[in-house]
Design a protein that fits this description.
- The complex is a heterodimer of chains A (about 120) and B (about 110).
- Chain A is built from no helices and 11 strands.
- With about 120 residues, chain A is an all-beta fold.
- Chain B has no helices and 12 strands.
- In chain B, the strands form 3 sheets. In chain B, strands 2, 5, 6, 10, 11 and 12 form a 6-stranded mixed β-sheet that branches. In chain B, strands 3-9-8-7 form a 4-stranded antiparallel β-sheet, with no helix packed on it.
- Chain B is globular.
- The chains are: A mainly beta (about 120), B mainly beta (about 110).
- The interface between A and B is medium-sized, with 21 and 21 residues.
């Protein structure tokens, strides 16, 4: 079990540029989550997938943000026309959810730290 | 909407002491899960302990234990025999499909 991986670990970009982050979940996990964490705060939920279906999006996720999980494995999070307020750590987590409604623990990746200049 | 409150922004104890971190939450749900996660400086979030709301017995994991009071919506974490490696941000989280985190408590263990 290699754990959740994220790429890149750090990204510095200029305001107005587009950026894309990738998350590879634990292989048998069917749920994948994206969170955003600003300095000194707890993570905030952005969106999550069960297999390839995006089941919920936070109101925090503006139209400039889009996430995909096309084959139910890895996911990408794209931010278009970045703003300085987008600077944060973007965390990915995965879990195994069963049909009986039980939920397994979410395991987190190391995060991608985005700095928008 | 669920909310999670951690009222202690920072705590500091000596190595080998016992420390308790507080957490309260607000929800109208009856079935949910509660977690404590640890985030060491510049390192990733890792699970400390998990509690299912339908279980009355408090969860324990080696030196870590919780005091879960469902009626009071309280979920505190006790760390016994604290170690230098316990220094980290600790987040309390509520889960019902997605995680809702508190603001965190920065815990420092001093030698």
């Amino acid at each position: 079990d290699t754990g959740v991986s994220q790429d890149p670990r750090h990204k510095i970009t200029k305001r107005g540029q587009n950026v894309t982050f990738r998350c590879d979940p634990i292989s048998e996990h069917n749920r994948l989550y994206w969170y955003r964490q600003t300095l000194g705060q707890g993570p905030e939920f952005l969106t999550y997938f069960q297999n390839e279906a995006q089941l919920e999006k936070s109101r925090l996720l503006s139209d400039r943000f889009s996430a995909e999980r096309p084959k139910g494995s890895f996911s990408t999070l794209e931010i278009q026309r970045t703003e300085q307020g987008d600077s944060a750590m973007y965390l990915c987590a995965s879990s195994r959810h069963n049909l009986a409604g039980g939920t397994d623990t979410q395991y987190f990746g190391p995060g991608t730290r985005l700095t928008v200049l | 909407a669920q909310t999670v409150t951690q009222s202690q922004p920072e705590m500091s104890v000596q190595e080998a002491e016992t420390v308790t971190l507080s957490c309260t939450y607000d929800t109208s749900e009856n079935n949910y899960y509660l977690f404590w996660y640890k985030q060491p400086p510049s390192r990733q979030m890792i699970l400390v302990i998990r509690q299912e709301a339908y279980k009355q017995q408090n969860a324990t994991e080696n030196r870590f234990s919780v005091n879960f009071q469902k009626a009071a919506k309280s979920f505190s974490l006790k760390i016994s025999d604290s170690q230098l490696g316990d220094t980290a941000m600790y987040f309390c989280a509520f889960e019902r499909q997605k995680l809702v985190f508190g603001q965190g408590t920065r815990l420092t263990i001093n030698p």
